[in-house]
Write a structure and sequence with these properties.
Number of strands: 21
Structural class: alpha+beta
Strand content: 25-35%
Order of helices and strands: EEEEEEEEHEEHEEEEEEHEHEEHEEHH
Low-confidence stretches: 384-390, 392-396
Distance between the termini: 57 Å
Largest sheet: 13 strands, mixed
Shape: elongated
């Protein structure tokens, strides 16, 4: 959701209302945080927002004793909205959940925890209902209608777009006595793997249930050295299965008198009768990799062994092995560079970190925003569960990448050693050249001096001295010629070395 007429300025405006009924009345709007002023009366001591895929977003705020709203925030009824002043996007919109008092080095403060409007689904509960399976839109509508019947108008939702394909092999769907949120989470999201999205419109709050969310972002990777300050890659094998026992509905064997006892365990539908007497299904590839790990998986609405086996086979075929995720602290470079895209929950980015995993394309599943430091963002990036083949491929690719990095580093090291050796040779040759040039110049001066002295002597009367000086001159000339030859040789070697370096 975007707010119009917002200045393009990094920072977050945090607004507050005493109750949801007041949010359209600007005269009852109060300021919790205004980043463009320095007065403590209108600034948070700290604040953060956690945005989550298929979860309820949270907002944590702290205000000091000098704040204008200190001890004036109302729990449960109070409403908080956080607006991104850079792009006008509403980053958080929800109610105050709890308030606590703390004391810090700066004095007393109030810590305020908020949850977004999806949390209203905690305020109602469902009832037992067995209804014909008419698809997920019908099922979600029944849950929302029952919720709306129990809550105030500002807590009500409308069902928006539903495009998640639903299994059609079960004739009925059920609701129990859980809260509306627990029912949606357990019986809808966890079973059909869609995305629940809250959408604010002028006329109402809409709940969409979508097959996919976010965009695939190209040209704006999450890369160490570019926009990543720290990065951690986690691999979790919790919940790993290699063999499952599919279990269906209770069998009605006529023992109705036993149903009143809490200690009674009822026999349930299994696949023995349609699976050669075996009650299990397995993934041979996973067993070879990880061994036998058996757990039961229950579909309480399925009464047919054939349908149960079919559902169990789909489950085992799509069985995932590990949960792979990244936790990264990044800089929101879009605030200063238009070439970068804003990080949004649901979007898919390339993660580039060769030594840890090579290059992966993963979805942002959680984002934590620092309200007082808008450039600092923490992300949890993952592809939920990975298949064995993907796990093995990534391990192989990571190994190849690490080998390539090692080879590249070795090549760079060799090049560095060669460059160092060449530089040392050049320095040595230049030193020798300088010495030879000094000797040659000195001998040149000596030869000139000897010539002058010989010219001033009488060849007859000074014949002995002339002969001695002439001999000295010949020695000097011979030495100079030797040094000049060395100078030419060294200059040739230097030119060859420098030409190799320029190729």
């Amino acid at each position: 959701m975007i707010v119009d007429n917002i200045a393009k300025n990094p920072g977050f405006l945090v607004l507050y209302w005493d109750q949801a009924e007041d949010i359209r009345d600007t005269s009852k709007q109060k300021v919790l945080h205004e980043p463009t002023v320095s007065r403590q009366e209108y600034r948070l001591s700290s604040g953060s927002i956690k945005q989550i895929v298929n979860g309820i977003n949270e907002c944590h705020l702290a205000i000091g004793i000098k704040h204008n709203l200190y001890k004036k925030i109302k729990p449960i009824k109070g409403i908080v909205k956080v607006v991104n002043l850079f792009d006008g996007e509403i980053e958080f919109y929800g109610r105050v959940l709890s308030i606590s008092m703390t004391m810090t080095s700066d004095g007393f403060a109030q810590e305020i925890i908020c949850e977004d409007m999806l949390a209203y689904l905690h305020d109602s509960c469902q009832d037992y209902e067995k209804v014909p399976n008419k698809g997920l839109e019908d099922y979600l509508a029944r849950i929302i209608n029952r919720h709306n019947a129990q809550v105030e108008p500002h807590k009500r939702f409308k069902v928006g777009l539903v495009n998640v394909p639903a299994p059609s092999d079960t004739p009925f769907r059920y609701t129990g006595y859980d809260t509306s949120w627990e029912t949606i989470k357990e019986r809808l999201i966890n079973k059909t793997n869609g995305y629940l999205v809250l959408r604010h419109e002028e006329d109402a709050m809409y709940i969409d249930y979508l097959k996919e969310v976010g965009d695939k972002i190209t040209g704006s990777p999450i890369m160490l050295g570019a926009n990543v300050k720290t990065a951690t890659r986690d691999l979790s094998f919790d919940g790993l299965l290699t063999r499952i026992v599919p279990v269906g509905a209770d069998l009605d064997n006529g023992s109705t008198s036993e149903t009143s006892s809490a200690d009674i365990i009822r026999e349930q539908v299994t696949i023995k009768s349609v699976n050669n007497g075996r009650n299990w299904l397995e993934n041979a590839e996973l067993i070879e990799q990880f061994g036998l790990i058996t757990k039961s998986v229950t579909w309480s609405e399925i009464t047919s062994p054939d349908i149960l086996k079919r559902r169990g086979q789909q489950y085992i075929d799509n069985l995932k092995t590990i949960l792979a995720s990244w936790k990264v602290d990044v800089v929101e470079l879009c605030l200063i560079d238009d070439r970068y895209v804003k990080f949004r929950v649901g979007n898919t980015h390339q993660i580039v970190n060769a030594p840890m995993s090579g290059i992966e394309e993963l979805q942002i599943i959680e984002k934590t925003i620092n309200i007082t430091k808008p450039q600092s963002v923490s992300l949890t990036v993952g592809s939920s569960n990975q298949s064995l083949s993907m796990f093995q491929l990534q391990q192989q690719e990571a190994q190849k990448t690490m080998e390539k990095v090692a080879a590249d580093n070795a090549a760079k090291q060799r090049l560095l050693e060669e460059q160092t050796a060449k530089a040392n040779n050049i320095a040595l040759l230049e030193s020798e050249l300088s010495q030879y040039q000094v000797q040659s110049e000195s001998l040149g001066q000596e030869i000139l001096t000897l010539d002058v002295e010989i010219e001033h002597l009488d060849p007859e009367s000074d014949a002995g001295l002339v002969a001695t000086l002439t001999t000295q001159k010949k020695v000097a000339v011979s030495k100079k010629e030797l040094y000049d030859t060395k100078i030419v040789e060294i200059q040739t070697k230097l030119n060859e070395l420098k030409e190799i370096g320029n190729e």
